[in-house]
Structures are given as C-alpha cells and as structure tokens.
Amino acid sequence: MRIAHTPAQLERQPRAVAIGTFDGVHRGHRNVVDAAIGTGLAATVVTFHPHPRSALGNQVELLSTLERRLELLAGTGAEAALVVSFTPEVMRLEPEQFAEEYLRAIGAEAVVAGGDFRFGHRRRGDLELLERLGFEVKVAPEVEGVSSSEVRRLLHEGDVAGAARMLGRPAELDGIVVAGDQRGGTLGYPTANLRVEPDLLVPQYGIYAGATGGHRAAVSVGTNPHYGGTERRIEPFLLDFEGDLYGQRLLVELWERLRDEQVFDDEQALIEQISRDVEATRAARRPL
To answer: Pairing with 3, which of 45, 61, 71, 79 sits 20 to 30 Å away (CA)?
Structure first.
C-alpha cells in the first residue's frame, strides 16, 4: 500500500476514498474499506493523525499507533493511504475546502464512510454535503455493536476475548523493548520490558496469556505489587525463547486474562504462581 502525507504525493486518478480515523481498524472499519474496494476504483484510505479528538484537547486512549494502523489498513487490500495531519489549519477548513483540497485533488469520485461521519470546521460537513458536491457517496454497512469506544471499554475490563471479536483479531500491545529491573531473570523467567507510547490504551492490569514473535508469552501488565512497584510495567515472558530483544519492536497479542496482580507470601510462592501462569499460557487458545 502506498502511503502519502500530502495530496500532492498521490497522482490524481479515479479513486474510491474510505475516510475516517480508523483507530484500531476493527470490523466496522474494514467494512468501510471493503466497500471502497468493491467500487472497482482505486481504493484509497484517507485517515487522520493525530486523532481529531485529541487534537481538540480531549484525552483519547488509542487502540493502535499510526504505524500499526497503516499496517492493518494495508492488510485490507487498499491501494493507497493519505494520512491527513490534523493541524489547527486543517481543523479550520470549511467542509467544501477540505473536499477540494484532500478528496478532489487526488481524483476521488466515490466516498465511503460510516453514516455518522462528520468533517470540516465545527464538523459541519457530512455525507449529504459530499453528495451535493458531486461525489458518489456510499454508507458502509455497520457491524452492530462494534465501535472503537466499545473495544476500549472491554479492554478496560480485561475482556480481551470480547475485544478480539470486535477487532476481528486479538487485541495487541505494541512497543519497544527497553531495559527493565531484570528481576525476572533471577526468578528463572526473564521478561522483556515493553515501552508503549503514552497515548496508547493499556488493558486492565493483570496477567495475560498471549503471543509475540512466534512464541507464546505470559504477559504481566501492571505495577508488580509484590515488589511494591508504583510505575506501570508491561513485561512479556516469551516461552521457549533465548536471545536479546533490546531495541526491538514487539507486537504482543493478548489471548486470555489469567488473573489479577497480587502480593505473595514469599518469593517461592511467586515463582510457583509464575510456573502455573506459564502452563496456562501453553494451554491458551488464540481467540480468532
């Protein structure tokens, strides 16, 4: 998939544009892209970064980084993506201006979005306006109950199986391996310390079964209360893995929430529980 950051980086040709923020690229988002592909025109995704709500000063816990969003969109079969930098100047564009500068300029003939899509200054633009401007407009079929906000709610509850059903794939943690306390190695279970971007959603604290890099992983999300920790840590232990992961990006799938974090009577009890977590991770099934 070709990725552009300005309209000038895409040649003008007949396009069907799937437009939206697409945070998490859940099943409903994929319906939008599929509808664009189904027109037979060059299917092009127009998406926004940063998230429009966060650009307006609201706190938004994102389901995916921009990098991961584009990877997932590429997997839909779209031919190109235009990432619109959601600057104050873009926010102030009237809907008609936005349509000319970002849609007409790349050759858009058809525009596909969810029925509640709004754009332009003070969200005054909608699909009816685009139709009046001469675009063929298609409203993508909704997937009942599926939304980014509902995925966020489920992850806050630790319901990674429910989130997977909405996403159409397992929920993920996405980050870079950095140096940690290296305490896990002394217990016989060396973990990778994952640094994630501060605006990414992290699910309910606890121990999860999942996978990353072709290995199953028991994943601790939380503050390590047994050691009196206060700083949030994300620490996957990769089963049957030996090697150095420092500096590498990991996409960690979360398959099942195993238990809450807890404080143990002694270190031996902690080690025994980790052993049980590892066995539960070996037995876990990928949700989709």
So the answer is: 61
